[in-house]
Amino acid sequence: MNPLDLYAKIEPLIGFDEQYEKLYQIYLDWLKSLHVKTILDVGCGNGKFLNHLQKNGFNAQGIERSLHMVERSLSLGVEASTKELKEFPRGSFDCVVAIADVLNYIPSDEVGLFFEEVSGVLKSGGYFLCDVNTLHGFESVADGVMAKEKDNLFLCVEATYEDKQLQTYITLFEKEGDLYHKEQGSITQYFHSQTFLKKIGIFKFCTTKSVSLFGRESDKTIMLLQKK
Ligand SMILES: C[S@@+](CC[C@H](N)C(=O)[O-])C[C@H]1O[C@@H](n2cnc3c(N)ncnc32)[C@H](O)[C@@H]1O
Fold first, then answer.
1. How confident is the model at residue 14 (pLDDT cuts 50, 70, 90)?
2. pTM (two decimals)
3. Which option is the CATH number for 3-134+192-227: 2.60.40.10, 3.20.20.140, 3.40.50.300, 3.40.50.150?
4. 66 CB under 6 A from ligand 1?
């Protein structure tokens, strides 16, 4: 199974809904202040943020590399697909968002190309609102072991942060009668410093906001970038 689809399968078990809702409210408040109408949510996941956008009157759609996630989004009645950024006509949106680790899924040597593609779908002067995990977020929040059990599922997640990379190993046992079906996969996330992202130079950095979702210290930085 594609590791992104395995993540989609275990996401309801992990249970960070409260933290994600907090993050969504910050994004929503920010988007309202920008007076944008058309929004593309890259890595829209289960579609909950798209649902917020729809309810708040934005014209929004999402893209996702996990088909499982797209199906979950569609079940909420929002618009989502497995389209890639380059499939959209240039200048399609007032704003692009990439929420909750999406940028950290992209290897450092591919962030430049990703920024170019995001810039391509934005109108002139359009905004890119996104976040990255801080070093604290990786080293002290994400790094560790977690086990969860629900109904016929038993999950074990082990995450290790080393050399600017978080490696997350997922093992899921699904009880089928007297037997267990086992699925395994791993996801890599990459630390991107503000200095590194600014050096890429495709966007103008307007402002940043530190966020603490899992304690007092900042575990994420939200960045408002603008197409030059
Ligand atoms: C941690 S989840 C966050 C999902 C969603 N934004 C949310 O707030 O719940 C990251 C998501 O990004 C998706 N993803 C990662 N890289 C992507 C890419 N280059 N294009 C589209 N989706 C991507 C993954 O499949 C995953 O669902």
1. very high
2. 0.96
3. 3.40.50.150
4. yes
